[in-house]
Amino acid sequence: MKKILVCDDDKDILEIIDFLLSENGWEVVTTTHVDRIIEQVEEAKPCVIIMDNWIPSTGGIIATQTIKSHPQHGNIPVIYSTANNDIESLAARAGADLFISKPFNLDNLEQIVDNAYQLKYG
């Protein structure tokens, strides 16, 4: 089964993403903080990660950079998510593979998650 780790401090967003992706065959693991991001990734073993920009306590940029610089986890596709207007530059600075603006269209979210999965698994 495909597994995704969703990092966002907004519980409503986590519930929406969980419902949507679970309906599409994903096992969804959620977290409201990134205090132990490498341990969280190792526990979840995700195929894809969605990372919010404004997530406690280190924030999405540092959390994504930490994942991407890790020898075992750097190849996991990360989708950066934020309502900021400069999402493209934030995602690039973080080292994310893809990005999605909030509020997001649910069909668009599904497509971006599938695209991220294809980056690694073809």
Which descriptors apply to this entry?
single chain; Rossmann fold; five-stranded parallel β-sheet; 5 helices
How would you describe what is shown here?
The protein is α/β, with parallel strands linked by helices and 122 residues long. The protein has one domain (2-121): Rossmann fold (3-Layer(aba) Sandwich). It contains five helices and five strands. It has helices at 11-23, 37-44, 60-68, 87-94, 106-121; strands spanning 2-7, 26-31, 48-52, 78-82, 98-101. Strands 2-1-3-4-5 form a five-stranded parallel beta sheet, with helices on both faces. Strand 4, helix 4 (87-94) and strand 5 (98-101) form a beta-alpha-beta unit. Helix 3 runs parallel beside helix 4 (87-94). The longest helix has 16 residues, at 106-121. It is globular, with a radius of gyration of 13 Å. The two termini are 15 Å apart. The mean pLDDT is 97.
The CATH level-2 architecture is identified as 3-Layer(aba) Sandwich
Q: Major sheet: size, sense and barrel closure?
A: 5 strands, parallel
Rounded Rg: 13 Å
Please report the total strand number as a whole number.
Answer: 5
Low-confidence stretches are none
Which percent range fits the helix content?
40-55%
Tell me the strand order in the biggest sheet.
2-1-3-4-5
Which CATH top level class fits? Answer: Alpha Beta
Spatial gap, N to C terminus: 15 Å
What's the total helix number?
A: 5
Looking at the structure, what is the overall shape? Answer: globular
Average of pLDDT: 97
| Element-level helix/strand string | EHEHEHEHEH
- Strand composition percent: 15-25%
